[in-house]
Please model this.
Amino acid sequence: MARSAWPRAERARAHPLTLAAGALFPVLGAALLGQRATLPNLVPWYAGLAKPAFNPPNAIFGPVWGLLYASMAYAAWRILRHAPAGRPRRIALTLFFAQLALNAAWSWGFFGLHRPLLGLVDIVPQWILIVATIARFWRLDRRAGASLVPLALWVAFAAVLNFAIWRLNP
Model:
């Protein structure tokens, strides 16, 4: 539903900076937590794995994830700011934070524990939660839902890549 459809009294009443922090800090925390597992394992472990021909260069991952994390924070902020408090918003945000937790956990399973299969076990439900979050966000604020579509596409690609790496490195 578009922002203008919500009566002013029903919109979130928190200060805009509080809402921004509520969206930004969890996303930033997940990104930093994931980096903590990923960066120390890029060389030599990840560099030594067999990878499929469609594996992007390592230099692509940082900028892409930076943009995706920014779009996640923006989407969460829009829901916090424009959706009225209540059950639909709670469900949407619960799905969002669940996929965010799986996002951080993926790095620890795949990179931290050197277990591509654990990454695969994580990334499938993560993608399902992302799609469910998009559907719920879309109902509350179309721009928020649309902001997560690139995430769903990238995680779908990452799942295929994760599967290929797992198969190539028994």
